[in-house]
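Regression test case RT-17, inverse folding.

Input:
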């Protein structure tokens, strides 16, 4: 089975471009341009140079000895937390701003939840001397103050969004409204594998450097270029797409994705879109959407701002529907326990997003010979207030 995007922007039943008429030319221009740019020698050279010399790639593939002993297998951590700006998001923003420049765009907008994509976008805009506006839900502004200040320090204008539940979905709505008002000069750097075609494919291609490096690094460390398991957290799905991209058609590799279960699937406070969603259209693509019986989008909830989204990238919707990926809903407390466990065992404080895939480890049944690659999508600096609030909860933090 082919899990890649087709010429119309669909992964099986999911994907496409459902857009207002005012954006039709913008999206059509991008559809015509993106592959030509991505495959050009000048783009590849500039992109690879910036990834190496500016972002700090390749990111390490670290053998987590104590975590491996805990779970009875060989666990490697793909350390996206060690990139410049602290997450995988910089891989995508470097690529998209280079595309924007080649298309003659002069203004950049973005949405952000946890703030990592916003910081990465503000960073490349400072690098390229381009004005930048970042939309961020007011709820996320309050819980991710450090990243807000970083964006402002980098010269971006951060616009708090007060509609809906004031999180990632609402920030994306406002960014699209901005784009509709300024279609000629504005390039929208979308942070994940969501939105109208070609964004899901473009972001996946830019993030595919993750799995490209995993192949080379595993060959060096294990004498083979594939793992038995690939594991990643999934909200919109960009770090997961990058982790699995070069292994989609390799049936030797099992794919495990962890989405945000919030306070539980039946609690009414969850962001487990694959578990709870139905087919629908959100932000320009047909995918799985958390929605009411009459099709209104339900407000998601997660302790993690970056996973607090009522949709899912169409690539991942297809992987889940076809059974190519196993998807686990990991609740807040499981994620927090996973974060503290990694911190104590390996001295690595992960982002709350990454903590969800760590929280899935106790549910797995590995063999001693299994090679597992787990992507740590970001570092936990931005989430310290949440972690510190749990320090006196022994069921989460253990005995200090």
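Golden output:
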């Amino acid at each position: 089975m082919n899990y890649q995007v087709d010429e119309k922007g669909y992964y099986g039943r999911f994907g496409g471009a459902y857009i207002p008429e005012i954006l039709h030319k913008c999206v059509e221009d991008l559809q015509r341009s993106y592959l030509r740019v991505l495959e050009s020698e000048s783009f590849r050279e500039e992109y690879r140079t910036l990834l190496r010399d500016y972002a700090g790639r390749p990111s390490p593939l670290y053998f987590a000895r104590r975590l491996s002993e805990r779970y009875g297998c060989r666990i490697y951590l793909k350390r996206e937390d060690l990139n410049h700006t602290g997450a995988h998001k910089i891989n995508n923003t470097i690529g998209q701003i280079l595309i924007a420049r080649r298309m003659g765009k002069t203004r950049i907008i973005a949405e952000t939840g946890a703030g990592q994509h916003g910081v990465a976008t503000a960073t490349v805009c400072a690098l390229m001397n381009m004005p930048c506006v970042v939309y961020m839900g007011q709820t996320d502004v309050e819980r991710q103050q450090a990243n807000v200040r970083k964006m402002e320090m980098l010269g971006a204008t951060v616009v708090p969004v007060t509609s809906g539940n004031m999180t990632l979905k609402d920030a994306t709505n406002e960014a699209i409204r901005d784009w509709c008002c300024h279609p000629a000069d504005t390039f929208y750097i979308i942070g994940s594998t969501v939105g109208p075609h070609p964004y899901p494919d473009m972001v996946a291609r830019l993030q595919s450097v993750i799995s490209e490096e995993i192949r080379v690094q595993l060959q060096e460390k294990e004498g083979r270029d594939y793992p038995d398991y690939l594991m990643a957290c999934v909200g919109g799905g960009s770090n997961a797409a990058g982790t699995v991209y070069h292994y989609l058609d390799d049936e030797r590799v099992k794919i495990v994705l962890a989405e945000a279960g919030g306070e539980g699937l039946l609690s009414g406070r969850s962001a487990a879109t694959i578990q709870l969603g139905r087919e629908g259209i959100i932000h320009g693509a047909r995918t799985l959407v958390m929605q009411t019986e009459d099709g209104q989008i339900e407000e998601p909830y997660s302790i993690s701002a970056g996973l607090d989204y009522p949709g899912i990238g169409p690539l991942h919707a297809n992987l889940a529907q076809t059974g190519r990926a196993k998807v686990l809903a990991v609740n807040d407390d499981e994620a927090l326990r996973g974060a503290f466990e990694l911190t104590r065992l390996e001295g690595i404080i992960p982002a709350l997003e990454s903590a969800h895939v760590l929280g899935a480890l106790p549910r797995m049944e590995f063999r001693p010979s299994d090679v597992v690659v787990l992507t740590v999508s970001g570092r936990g600096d931005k989430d310290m207030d949440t972690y510190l609030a749990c320090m006196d909860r022994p069921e989460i933090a253990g005995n200090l």
